[in-house]
Amino acid sequence: MRLLLSIFAVYYSSQGCEISIKELDSLMSMLSEKKRKMEQEEAERNMQILLDFLQYLRKQKVDELNEVRSDLQYIKEDVEAVEKHRMELYRVRDRYSMKLRMLGNDPNMRNLRPSTHEKSNSGVISSSFSGRGGMTTGNLPTKKMDGKAQGSSHGLQRKDSLTGLDSQFNQSGLSVVRKKRVHAQFNDLQECYLQKRRQSANQALNQPLDQLERDKSLIQREGYSVGLIDFQSVLSTFTQYSRLRVIAELRHGDIFHSANIVSSIEFDRDDELFATAGVSRRIKVFDFSTVLNDPADVHCPVVEMSTRSKLSCLSWNKFAKNQIASSDYEGIVTVWDVTTRQSVMEYEEHEKRAWSVDFCRTEPSVLVSGSDDCKVKVWCTNQEASVLNIDMKANICCVKYNPGSSNHIAVGSADHHIHYYDLRNISQPLHVFSGHRKAVSYVKFLSNSELASASTDSTLRLWDVKENVPVRTFRGHTNEKNFVGLSVNREYIACGSETNEVFVYHKEISKPVTWHRFGSPEIDDAEEDAGSYFISAVCWKSDSPTMLTANSQGTIKVLVLAA
User: Cβ distance 393 to 430 under 8 Å?
Assistant: First the structure.
């Protein structure tokens, strides 16, 4: 302040003006008032900013607290419902055990017990009964009963009790294993539970009265909320399996020949046959049951068809069992008759390599293809020329029909996006799904509304094509440059990896459920560890935990999810 007054005094002196003490006091008072006003405004602004921050923080924390309270209420309700249901199961078990003890003590029932000789002759009945539970004993070795085995009824009762004890131990061990799986993926499972529980609560507020009544009747029947029922289904399927087991293996060709990459492997309509194709320029069709039941390492295909060029993709007709379509490196799309081993139609409009082809599920005469010429073409088996053409700005890596519609297709391309089209209006896509950082190599539909995609950014993504929103991102495998395969069923997503491993994800969990590494006894471990081979194709068997897998060496394995 004094410095400012000095400046004013010097200024007025230089102008030849004299300033009185009274004028200086007035000036000082005015400047002081101005300073206080500026300080006041600055303090008010700072307080307002601080208050806004605290109020926003309080609102956020109150919302979080309300959400936590709601979540705790959901959990409390669900714990009570599950405890009640568990006690009912215990009561049923106790009643069943009581009946067994009563039957064991009944002298009439003792006389009805089969002898050891009768038991040994009842293999057919035993096998049939076991088959109802999903496992048969017909192929298991049986031992002859010696004299020591023919004990008294007391011995039989003791054996029954020990069997029950063993069963309890087995159940306990299985529970421990499944609990470990839950704890390993607890964060994802927690998010899944809360998401489903909140969604069901929100839907209950907005749904029509008739739907609300149906949900209430379901809750009364099951004793659970709709959200808990959905989550229980996820938890059961997720903890059901922990590994992939090899149940069959075959060689696609000469293991010392470099041209053995299996680019595509697909089951036919009835899952009785499967076809393979790749750089060997041959479509080979195998009988699945023969591969499964014959222990031979090399299996002969039941049908083999030669092509002019390397093959990139196969697609079976979903109605005509004898028809299969292929796309190749010359851009040719061919429809084959497997029975006659001859091509039915050849479409040569693509100007570059065709990467993908797919038969429509709802319209058996229609198929779609995508190519490096940046074009998507729709074909009809009754016509020689394409019936529809979509000209895009980037190379097309994959195309797939929505399983519930002949009008909707998903297109994955090198522009990192998925373009979802209604073929009745191709001027622009219905939606463009963005999120991948590199080319989209595969698209597959889990249902009419769920679409999975794979990319060379080493991720899979799940999308909702009805709401046009991303659902989840899956990470764990390695995929930076090759086509490693993608296959889906209603619950699980399988893909390959450039580490020569097959990975399986549950659609509700972002980390792998399990994985399996392809081994190669003929190749030195160091070479294999260096990443010489990669998984090149995968395919689920319909509504089954069984899948076909193939790698760049030409090895094909049948894998099954196991506990």
Answer: no
Residue 121 is classified by DSSP as T
Look-up: residue for tokens 């193939």? Answer: 550
Burial (CB < 10 A; 0-12, 13-18, 19+), residue 115, is exposed
Beta bridge partners of 452: 444, 462
What pTM did the predictor assign? Answer: 0.77
Asked if 201 and 74 touch (Cβ cutoff 8 Å), the reply is: yes
Task: With both helix axes pointing from N to C terminus, report the angle between 21-105 and 186-206 in degrees, rounded to the nearest 10.
Answer: 100
Give the contacts of 419 (CB within 8 A, at least 6 positions apart). Answer: 392, 410, 411, 413, 429, 432, 433
Element (H, E) at 413: strand 408-413
C-beta separation of 264 from 255 below 8 A: no
The alpha carbon torsion through 520, 521, 523, 529 (nearest 10 deg) reads 60
SS3 state of residue 204: helix
User: Span 438-459, mean pLDDT?
Assistant: 97
* String of DSSP letters for 350-389: -SS-EEEEEE-SS-TTEEEEEETTSEEEEEETT-SS-SEE
Structure tokens at 460: 């899979």
Q: What is the pLDDT of residues 184-200, one digit of tens each?
A: 889 999 999 999 999 88
Helices 226-240, 209-222: axis angle to 10 degrees equals 50
Closest CA to 323 of 282, 364, 284: 364
Q: Are 434 and 407 in contact (CB under 8 A)?
A: no
Tokens of 85: 């249901």
| pLDDT in the model for residue 27 | 80
Contacts of 374 (CB under 8 A, 6+ apart): 391, 392, 393, 394, 395, 396
Query: Whole-angstrom Cα distance, residue 136 to residue 122?
Result: 14
pLDDT single digits (tens) 306-364? 999 999 999 999 999 999 999 999 999 999 999 999 999 999 999 999 999 999 999 99
* C-alpha dihedral sign at 84, 90, 94, 96: positive
Distance, in Å, from the CA atom of 28 to the CA atom of 20, rounded to the nearest integer, reads 12
The pLDDT tens digits of the residues spanning 475-519 come to 999 999 999 999 999 999 999 999 999 999 999 999 999 999 997
Nearest to 430 by CA among 444, 411, 406, 414: 411
Residue-level length of the chain: 563
Rg (CA), the chain: 35
Angle in degrees, 0-180, between the axes of helices 21-105 and 153-184, rounded to the nearest 10: 160
